[in-house]
Amino acid sequence: MTRYADIPKPIRSGLVIVDPRRGTPQRIIVLQFNPDSLERSLAPQAAGAEGAGDRTEALRLKGPAVESWKFTAEIDSTDQLEVAAPDGIHPHLAALEMLVHPTSAQLRAAEALAARGTLEITPIETPLTLFTWGNKRVIPVRLTELSIAESAFDVHLNPLRASLGIGLRVLSVSDLPAGHRGAELYMAHLVQKERLAGSLASGRPDALGLTGGGNGIGGV
After folding, report:
1. Looking at the domain assignment, is residue 147 inside a domain?
2. Contact in structure between 141 and 13 (CB atoms under 8 Å)
3. pLDDT tens for each residue of 14-24
4. Interior CA angle at 218 toward 206 and 214, to 5°?
5. Which of 79, 82, 190, 197 is most buried by a 10 A CB count?
6. pLDDT for 34-71, tens place per residue?
């Protein structure tokens, strides 16, 4: 008889906030429920402009494809006993929202520089964010979209349930400086993708109806 202990515990997807210099996790945001579906789009970075007519550039790439992810995540405090009753799911929402906000300390530091007459203030850098979907997909990302639909509240109007629309842009070596920890993580992700592609069995031309020598494909 199958025991509950024999059933593998599902792996959760989530976001990891990493110190880009030390490489140590600063915060891990575990998604309570894995999304039912993921929407991914990849736009190739072609070397030549579309329709430019440069025949030498037709098969050339300037860099990795621009990849975006979208999914819907659910948070429900009634299924998470560790959620503190006085706050509902405020901590979970705040942790996600801080991915698109500078900290108050960073803003005060920028204000202090402006008050001292600094002419050019470097834009505030956020921590490195990784999206994890199992051990085969650990990718550096930037949060590009966050919509929150709160649907249940306690007597103090603390949110208890929410549906989150999350959009992510994968950060590749085209986006990050050489030697950046995020760039190295992207390269590791790309190597993993190459390995998976290489494990696919090679198809046979006759499965596509490519028989005989009149199709221009050598060896068919």
Report:
1. yes
2. no
3. 999 988 777 78
4. 70
5. 190
6. 899 999 999 988 876 665 566 777 778 888 999 999 99
DSSP type of residue 168: E
Q: What is the pLDDT of residues 161-217, one digit of tens each?
A: 999 999 999 999 999 988 889 999 999 999 999 999 999 888 788 787 887 666 666
Identify the pLDDT of residue 64.
Answer: 92
Write out the two tokens for 2. 């199958």
**52 in a structural domain:** no
CA 56 to chain centre: 34
Residues in the chain: 220
**2 assigned to some structural domain:** no
115: amino acid identity, one letter: A
> What does the block give as tokens for 131?
């999206």
User: What is the domain range of residue 99?
Assistant: 10-35+62-104+121-199
Report how many domains make up the chain: 1
Instruction: Identify residue 181 by its one-letter amino acid code.
Output: R
Nearest 5°: the CA angle 173, 198, 43 is: 40
